[in-house]
Amino acid sequence: xxxxxxxxxxxxxxRLLKQSHSRWYExxxxxxxxxxxxxxxxxxxxxxxxxxxxxxxxxxxxxxLSIDLVLGFAGxxxxxxxxYFGLGAYVAALLAKGGAGTFPMSDPVIGLLIAGLVTxxxxxxxxxxxxxxxxxxxLMVTLGVALILSELANQMRWLTGGADGLxxxxxSAVLGIWEFDLWGRVAYLYSxxxxxxxxxxxxxxxxxxxxxxxxxxxxxxxxxxxxxxPVNARLVAxxxxxxxxxxxxxxxxxxxxxxxxxxxxxxxxSADGLLILVFGGAGYLYGGLIGAAAFxxxxxxxxxxxxxxxxxxxxxxxxxxxxxxxxxxxxxxVAGWARLRKGDGQ
Amino acid sequence: MANLLELRDISAGYGEAVVLNHVSLALPEGQSLAxxxxxxxxxxxxxxxxxxxxxxxxxxxxLSGQDITRLRPDQRALAGIGWVPxxxxxxxxxxxxxxxxxxxxxxxxxxxxxxxxxxRLAERRSNMGNQLSGGEQQMLAVGRALAxxxxxxxxDEPTEGLAPIIVDELLQALRTIVRExxxxxxxxxxxxxxxxPLCDQAIILDRGQVAYQGTSEDLTNAPDILATLLGxxxxxxxxxx
Lengths: 346, 241
Prior knowledge:
The complex is a heterodimer. Chain A is mainly α. Chain A is built from 15 helices and no strands. Chain A is globular, with a radius of gyration of 21 Å. Chain A has a single domain, classed as ABC transporter involved in vitamin B12 uptake, BtuC (Orthogonal Bundle), CATH 1.10.3470. In chain B, the strands form two sheets. Chain B has a six-stranded mixed β-sheet, with helices on both faces. Chain B has one domain (about 30-55, about 70-235): Rossmann fold. Chain B is an alpha/beta fold. In chain B, about 35% of the residues lie in helices and about 30% in strands. The chains are: A mainly alpha, B alpha/beta. At the A-B interface, helix 1, helix 9 and helix 10 of A face helix 2 and helix 3 of B.
């Protein structure tokens, strides 16, 4: 019987694994992201370098991905991911600054791992606060945690540099080989590689039985609990993982911009992350990535046209998206694809 | 025979309202119990109390001699209580496969066996929960409960609102589960005709209290009790085993 069960579990896992295999369009997505390096990396005459903007998009995408794990898959409404993002940024910046460009303290990869670990631990501790209450309570609790951290960063001047933040952050070469350059080439490739790894891990998580149980919890936590899903333990686990990912995103931004400031831990980070996810579409993983690109490019373009009113137009687009499209840009694409296939079928 | 599930003097309800009044029952290992009663007599409340979803005021619940009264619903489920709720409550955004895999635990009820029991589900294993018919949803709810490899299965009106042909298919599966596999079960039904032939024991609830407790066979042959407590006319009484 045990052999039969093991075989059964294996076949269930194999089916889930097959589901989680990347489709051609996913590889296309990553190929496009990589090709942007060539297009905007100052290799083509006449095309301006935009790698710093692209690197920022990648970090925002990672922040949105972390929010997608908790909101899109587990149904936890949060305004607190900015706190983990900022904490990760400060941890990485302090390490790099303390190491003064020398291995191992200033090593970017070690910095990322430590930032992820610290924010993961902080996420674990604070996760118990979000287990109680409704969506509104969770929203307030996560916002409260973010505000506390933001104020701490502002007040602990001796450690964080207060309102001025930390400057002179000098991470050493990535893996001891690639130094961060002026054009942001290493920064972009490094950030993209980190995003890819974190995305791949998230993909495995959501396509595992653990991920399915998160979806079940999102469907109906009471029902999920009654049929044997340990709801609290699963929510704590995913909240901790998401906090670690947000911390890594913050650490990436600190390392690539070589600074950490209160702006990185401010409330608007959480709001931006949530906005990006709504823009892109929650519960797809790619929503955060596409949303980050759309959000930041739109911000850039609208900002160039009307610097004073860019937020107005951004707000208008968001309202239109929410009213006319279900589940953001990806939702729009999925609906369009379904309509196309239906048309083909007729 | 040792009792697998035992309720001692349970009183429970919702908010201030007390629905169950000092209910006691015992279910031995490998036996099945038909829980009967008219609408609003407390059948679903009793099941929900065993699962841990209602407010218990008094009494205790034991599973294999272990007091599970203070356990959370998920802890009770992992201890061996499988629940098929009245509303089926399948996860609509998950496929049939995913609904089962999400909670599957190690034990004799593998996916292979569940699909063998419900071939109709096997055909629709890639369909989303919201693409299933009512009967298929009910089969999935039973299959999902089995995937937890429970020691006792609680089924709350499993045939309610289903087409007669689906009811027959489901009853056949339940017969396999309780008669051939020997899984202990409590099956809630309003109609004794469907369920008494499947069960060893029967309990009738009336206004939150146990009004009848005995073997299914005795109840089948007691048309006066069926008529008084369930409103079943003599000619409509359940057939003998």
